[in-house]
């Protein structure tokens, strides 16, 4: 599952919905303050993926993380300063049902929002790039989880 926390750019939301669809996410949740998934630019950027999986909108991040945790889903916040995703995967921690929380494209996840997650995990960057864009980070995180879960059977 993918939780989009205050994603404002329609192109970014469409791209992450497409990524979520590609890697088998069961749903996408857009917290209050996110662009509407029905925005024509979101639909266009998703290349139709907005019609392939449920999209829940207008909820608070605290509500979403609480409901996911109560359902037995681990909640991971994506942030460049978090635990190394590769190490996290190597320890078998991505085989559980997992929801990724992705923050706003401009400022990421505020500290208080990241604190709502079970862990903060980051995509390792070995080159000179400072960071990844939202869709790329979502793709790496969701692929890592999907791959770990498929390998675990």
UniProtKB/TrEMBL annotation:
Stretch forming the signal peptide: none
Annotated SUPFAM superfamilies: alpha/beta knot
GO BP of this protein: methylation; RNA processing
Enzyme Commission code: 2.1.1.34
Chain segments annotated as transmembrane: none
Residue ranges constituting the tRNA/rRNA methyltransferase SpoU type domain according to the UniProt record: 2-143
Keyword list, A-Z: Methyltransferase, Transferase
Record has Protease as a keyword: no
Pfam families per UniProt: SpoU_methylase (PF00588)
Entry's Gene Ontology molecular function annotations: RNA binding; tRNA (guanine(18)-2'-O)-methyltransferase activity
Record protein name field: tRNA (Guanosine(18)-2'-O)-methyltransferase
Organism listed in the record: bioreactor metagenome
């Amino acid at each position: 599952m993918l939780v989009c926390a205050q994603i404002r750019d329609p192109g970014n939301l469409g791209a992450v919905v497409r990524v979520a669809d590609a890697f088998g996410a069961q749903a996408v949740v857009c917290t209050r303050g996110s662009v509407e998934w029905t925005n024509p630019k979101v639909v266009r950027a998703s290349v139709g993926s907005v019609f392939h999986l449920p999209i829940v909108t207008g909820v608070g991040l605290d509500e979403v993380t609480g409901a996911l945790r109560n359902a037995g889903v681990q909640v991971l916040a994506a942030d460049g300063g978090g635990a190394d995703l590769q190490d996290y995967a190597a320890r078998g921690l991505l085989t559980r049902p997992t929801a990724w929380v992705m923050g706003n494209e401009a400022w990421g996840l505020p500290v208080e929002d990241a604190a709502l997650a079970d862990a903060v995990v980051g995509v390792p960057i070995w080159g000179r790039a400072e960071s990844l864009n939202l869709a790329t980070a979502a793709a790496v995180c969701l692929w890592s989880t999907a791959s770990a879960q498929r390998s675990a059977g």
